Amino acid sequence: MGKIDVYPTTAWSAGTGCHGGCGQNLFVEDGKLVKVEGNEDHPWNQGRSCPRALAMTQYVYHEDRITEPLIRVGERGEGKFEPISWDEALDYCEEKMGAIRDEHGAESVIFVQGTGRDIGGPITFLAYSYGSPNWVQLGLSGHSCYTPRLGAMKTTLGEFAVADCSQFLEKRYDDPEWEAPEYIIVWGQNPPNTCPDGFYGPWIVDCMQRGSKIISVDPRNTWMSTRAEYHLQIRPGTDGALALGMLNIIIEEGIYDKDFVEKWVDGFDAIKERAAEYPLDKVAAITEIPAADIQAAARAYANAKQAAIQWGVPIDMCPDGTAVAHAISCLWTVTGNIDIPGGQVIAKPAFGVTAYPFSSEELVELYGKDLVERMNEKRIGADIYPMYKHFRGWASPDVTIEQIETGNPYPIKGAWIQTANVIGGQAARAKFHYDAMKKLDFVAIVDLFHNPTTMALADIILPAATFPEKNSFRSWWTPMDSIKKRVQVGECRSDWEINFELAKRFNPEGLQRWATVIDYFDERMEPSGMTFDELDAKGGWAMSPEGPGRPYRRHEKGHLRADGKPGFNTPSGKVELYNKSFESWGMDPLPFYTEPPQSEASTPELFKKYPLVMITGARSNLFFHSEHRQIPWLREKEPDPTVEIHPDTAKEYGIYDGEWIHLENDMGHIKRKALISLKVKPNHVQTLHGWFKPEAEGAEPNLFNVWDYQVNQIIPGPQASKSGFGGGQYKTTLVRLAKISEGGA
Ligand SMILES: Nc1nc2c(c(=O)[nH]1)N[C@H]1C(S)=C(S)[C@@H](COP(=O)(O)OP(=O)(O)OC[C@H]3O[C@@H](n4cnc5c(=O)[nH]c(N)nc54)[C@H](O)[C@@H]3O)O[C@H]1N2
Ligand SMILES: Nc1nc2c(c(=O)[nH]1)N[C@H]1C(S)=C(S)[C@@H](COP(=O)(O)OP(=O)(O)OC[C@H]3O[C@@H](n4cnc5c(=O)[nH]c(N)nc54)[C@H](O)[C@@H]3O)O[C@H]1N2
Ligand SMILES: [Mo]
Question: Does the beta carbon of 242 lie inside 6 Å of ligand 2?
């Protein structure tokens, strides 16, 4: 046995797959990773690890990992690929993408990512250097993941905010300034399993251990809801009505923070009037939550000295998700729970460092005025949906796939796919995406394993590195972390390195100021006064010093505005609950509720045929979306895709526990193993998305059995939210159960 060295680093992306942030210790022996363990010195996770981090060695050295660039040699879908060198691979991409740019314009190549991994930096770097404005989470209907919430926060508060679990303070729970929230509303989130969006889920449990009580808003019985003081067992997709109903109670009963409202809120009267359209009885009927529970929970939250809301992706997946997020943000605003310990803490990246430019000024400086002008002209969906034009640089996923299909107003010829399994997990209407994407002339995929998307579509596959194999940095939100390369597997390269090399081929002059990616990191990290290596030498993490970069009450101290005056970072200096940005973009300036597009009320005929509301994608902590099914330690705990069915419903259909059945609607059917469970109400079922079987035949038509298991085949596309953001029907599709006929398995 050789000597084992232990190196601290930060987990983000490949391996754990996740939104990242955990300090992990890598145990390395003779250049090989032998163990991963939580780093106790890291303030984020304080020594803890998730199952996926603990199984890292099985992931990194898995025999199915793609460890060299592969080029397709057979027909698309035949599964025939051959290894080529990196030089050949990059030459090939340069040639193909260059030809599309010459013939059709750079906008004819789309740049596709999945969720918030370590990818926003590298993929925009490549897309913008190449010249395309079309950066998109293809298939994520309504872009229903965090962006709707971000949009509502930025336009009302001028900032982003998260539940304050002391994460912005080094000493964490021991910092005397911090106070535990008296109540935390855990709203459509499953924190112990998910750790999303710069938030470590177990922090909620830490707060509970320090006295926080829970109000759970969840249609299911979960670990959290069964420990909650109030469980509001909501009908999926009706969160907007609940938020407005609670707001109405709080305003009517006068239990809002009058001083805060007077001083810092713009549009209170208008909000009051809008909330009055949601009286308790009406809201109880819409949400299927007993009126008394809604009332008690609203009072508990409003009467607490400090209270927080921690929300999840089901908010975005409500129809008009942006409006729902707006409604919820009104709750924390009128109760004055902003910018105080134990409320919503204003979230800014440590030292103001970001991995890639967010502002137009910075974009102009890096990529030129021409690109930025073209971004709005050519970005797909920007002419249709106001928020694609005005908020963040995304293209609309729903419009993009239509445009691939129709070629209007201009053709889409190529796709660069990096960190996304479009067909196997991300896309609603999975088959429609499959058919449309087959028409592309060129598809490059950067991934670590084969999946249904690589098999069906890839012309070339570039092998990506896991987090122990790469250099990168992270500042979402705090601390700022270094991610330092400690091992090498085959010829795998980091996403940053791959994109940096290819980007240089498309824009050699613009990018010559950086010789290596580390030079680029150093430049971005300049506001911290540290280089990448200096940060790493300090243990790999650092937080903003005392002052404007730190909580609390920054709006009173003049720490939020460029002019240094007290107030919020909005034109009026107040929290603009009457949303003037929305108004100027032609949207409703006040929050509202929309009934889900499929439901007893909106589609009674369909409901007769398909009377069960299907919730999908309540996350398992073993898997990240469609990943990890090939990792033995994880898969053995959850070998098959199951569907949670209430015992009464199972009885009605005559289904036994463990029976293989179909979930079906007019779009088709998929297979699931019945899991009879009290987690769901009788009129709901719940199933995890992203299932395919990596051990099955990969070549078409099989594609790792994806068409047997891919629930997104029966999830419809958008019923366009007015903003374009929100409304993916991942939690509200109607289905029924069916027995699999003899021999039909
Ligand atoms: N039915 C249903 N569908 C859903 C959801 C739901 O709730 N229900 N949720 C939706 C949501 S919120 C989201 S955000 C999307 C997410 O969808 P995706 O982000 O596409 O999720 P994955 O299926 O994990 O696919 C990611 C792919 O990237 C690869 N990968 C992982 N890490 C890295 C890396 O560091 N570098 C590179 N190059 N590749 C990497 C993985 O191997 C995998 O093939 O899914 C959506 N789909
Ligand atoms: N282990 C693991 N972690 C992950 C992921 C993963 O795949 N695996 N995915 C990552 C991604 S991209 C995301 S977006 C996040 C998502 O993670 P979360 O935001 O936590 O969302 P979900 O797990 O989809 O659902 C959370 C809870 O909401 C409930 N719910 C379902 N529908 C509704 C509804 O209409 N209203 C309300 N109020 N509640 C509802 C579900 O029953 C579930 O218990 O997790 C991230 N973290
Ligand atoms: Mo997501």
Answer: no
Strands (E), 405-488: 414-418, 442-447, 460-463, 472-474, 480-483
CA–CA distance, 516 with 528 (Å, rounded to integer)? 20
**What CATH code is carried by the domain that includes residue 331?**
3.40.228.10
212 DSSP β-pair partners:
none
> Residue 102 maps to which CATH number?
3.40.50.740
Mean pLDDT of 217-242: 98
For residues 517 and 497, give the distance between their C-alpha atoms in angstroms, rounded to a whole number: 7
The radius of gyration of the chain from alpha carbons, rounded to an integer in Å, stands at 25
Smallest Cα–Cα separation from 665: which of 711, 604, 708?
A: 711
Mean pLDDT value of segment 621-641: 98
Arithmetic mean of pLDDT, 433-452: 98
Residues 194 and 328 in one domain: yes
Is 617 inside any structural domain?
yes
Q: Indicate the DSSP class of residue 468.
A: G
Is 314 a pocket residue for ligand 2 (Cβ < 6 Å)?
Answer: yes
Indicate left, alpha or beta for 415 from its phi (over 0: left) and psi (-120 to 50: alpha). Answer: beta
**CA–CA–CA angle 641, 642, 644 (5° rounding):** 155
Token representation of residue 569: 């970072």
- 616/707 same-domain check: yes
Burial 515-532 (b: 16+ CB within 10 A, else e): eebeebbbebbebbebbb
As for how many domains the chain has, the answer is 3
pTM: predicted TM-score of the whole model, two decimal places: 0.98
Task: Give me the sheet containing 183-187, strands edge to edge.
Answer: 230-232, 213-217, 183-187, 307-311
**Residue 302 is part of which domain span?**
161-346
Q: Which of 9, 190, 220, 448 to mutate to test the pocket of ligand 1 (most atoms within 8 A of CB)?
A: 448
725 Cα to the center of ligand 3, angstroms: 13
Residue 474 and residue 718: Cα distance in Å, rounded? 33
Quickly list H helices, 19-159: 51-54, 56-60, 86-104, 120-130, 147-157
Asked if residue 552 has a cis previous peptide bond (ω within 30° of 0), the answer is: yes
Is 742 exposed, middle or buried (CB count within 10 Å of its CB: 0-12, 13-18, 19+)? exposed
d(CA 519, CA 525): 10
pLDDT at residue 743, rounded to an integer: 46
Asked if residue 705 and residue 643 are part of one domain, the reply reads yes
CATH of the domain at 656: 2.40.40.20
In this structure, the number of other CB atoms found within 10 A of the CB of residue 267 comes to: 21
My answer on whether 188 and 330 are in the same domain is: yes
CA dihedral 66, 68, 74, 80 (to 10 degrees): -40
Q: State if residue 495 touches ligand 1 by the CB under 6 angstroms criterion.
A: yes
711 pocket-lining for ligand 1 (C-beta < 6 Å) = yes
| 321 Cβ closer than 6 Å to some ligand 2 atom | no
Could you give the CA distance from residue 591 to residue 240 in angstroms, rounded to a whole number? Answer: 8
- Our CA angle for 135, 136, 141, nearest 5°, is 165
- Please give the Cα distance from 44 to 33 (Å, whole number): 23
Which pLDDT tens digit goes with each residue over 646-683?
A: 999 999 999 999 999 999 999 999 999 999 999 999 99
Count the Cβ atoms, other than its own, within 10 Å of residue 370.
10
Residue 96 scores a pLDDT above 80: yes
**Residue 275 and residue 286: Cα distance in Å, rounded?**
15
- Dihedrals φ, ψ of 674, to 5°? -65, 130
Residues 119 and 190 in one domain: no
- Cα separation, 150 vs 154, in Å, equals 6
How far, in Å, CA of 205 to CA of 218, rounded?
17
Strands (E), 265-359: 265-266, 307-311, 344-347
Rounded-to-integer distance, Cα 506 and Cα 625, Å: 33
